[in-house]
Design goal:
about 325 residues; alpha+beta; 2 domains; four-stranded antiparallel β-sheet; two-stranded antiparallel sheet; 14 helices; about 45% helix; elongated; binds zinc ion
Length: about 325
């Protein structure tokens, strides 16, 4: 399975590798697509037939914000004449005509079916043809990418009705997708009725970027009918911000950072402090009763944004925790 320009396809490909127990997407061959489609369909069937709040409902909560009008989530799913799993396998495995003149929008292979937002999250709705290059509804998607994007639910996090995904280096995206896939499989296997309270996806983000100090783009969204601008929230953490947070934590500044987080509205995780070198944070620190201990931290953050190397941050941050 190739990795393409589309983040949903890449995250799905890493999830597929985890689902099959492979070392990476390059180890996934064409016969594996049927195996993956079977797993996806079986889990979709379980979720679609779950009772609200009952066993297996967590997986429906995960699928609903991504594929709201698809067979496993459609309001009429329980009364539908055909089984959910049959229909899922059918649209995932529909053959592509090798002579098709329409290349898959993600990978470029010949593709036959065209998918819109009900099957590919956040793609254009079927009725929107103005933005379509060939003035036809939806986008052509090959079998490989259809299966990959339906592996996406395993690779992402669910928080308060929203989906959270990350875009970063290959290593970070793979670690994020695999970690979430292991959790998803646990939820499915044990029939979770809900996602555990207090599971903060930003902890997982930090766990996967900390080893490399990479930057990351985090997106939170629901695949509903609002315009993309209003249904998606994004946060950008640069490598400079990561470097600053890593060095500060290594040097024992954790408790000070925790206090600093409290002066910032909606700061649910320390990595929000590192998102940008902003004047607002300076102003809030300046207004604190004793800003002294925090100033070296903020200076080091500024230094990081001027020179995002670990050594620049280390030089700017006193090597021991201030008393
Ligand atoms: Zn493709």
């Amino acid at each position: 399975m190739d990795l393409t320009w589309h983040a949903f396809q890449r995250l799905g490909a890493y999830a597929a590798a985890e689902l099959l127990g492979r070392s990476g997407p390059s180890e996934i061959a064409e016969p594996d697509l049927g195996t993956l489609a079977g797993m996806i369909a079986e889990h979709a069937q379980m979720a679609g037939m779950a009772e609200k709040g009952g066993r297996g409902w967590a997986w429906l909560l995960q699928l609903a914000p991504m594929f709201p009008q698809a067979p496993p989530t459609h309001p009429s799913r329980v009364k539908a004449l055909r089984r959910i799993d049959e229909r899922v396998v059918e649209f995932l495995m529909e053959p592509d005509d090798p002579g098709s003149a329409t290349p898959c929008w993600a990978c470029g292979r010949p593709a036959t079916p065209r998918w819109s937002k009900s099957l590919w999250p956040l793609a254009e709705p079927a009725r929107e043809i103005n933005n379509s290059r060939d003035r036809l509804p939806g986008v052509p998607v090959c079998r490989w990418c259809r299966v990959a994007v339906w592996c996406l639910p395993y690779a992402v996090a669910f928080s308060r009705g929203r989906i959270i995904h990350v875009e970063s280096t290959d290593e970070v995206e793979e670690a994020w997708a695999r970690s979430n896939t292991r959790l998803s499989l646990e939820a499915i296997r044990d029939g979770w009725a809900d996602w555990a309270e207090g599971t903060d996806p930003f902890h997982t983000v930090w766990d996967v970027i900390r080893p490399s100090g990479s930057g990351v783009l985090i997106s939170s969204w629901v695949n509903d009918n609002r315009p993309v601008k209003t249904r998606m929230t994004r946060w950008q953490l640069s490598a400079a911000g990561s470097a600053w947070l890593i060095v500060a934590l290594e040097r024992g500044y954790g408790p000070l950072l925790e206090q600093l987080a409290r002066v910032r509205p909606r700061c649910t995780h320390l990595l929000f402090l590192a998102m940008q070198d902003d004047e607002e944070l300076w102003d809030r620190v300046g207004a604190m009763p004793s800003p002294g201990p925090y100033l070296p931290l903020i200076s080091a953050l500024r230094a990081a944004y001027q020179d995002p190397s670990m050594s620049a941050v280390e030089a700017a941050l006193p090597p021991r925790l201030l008393s």
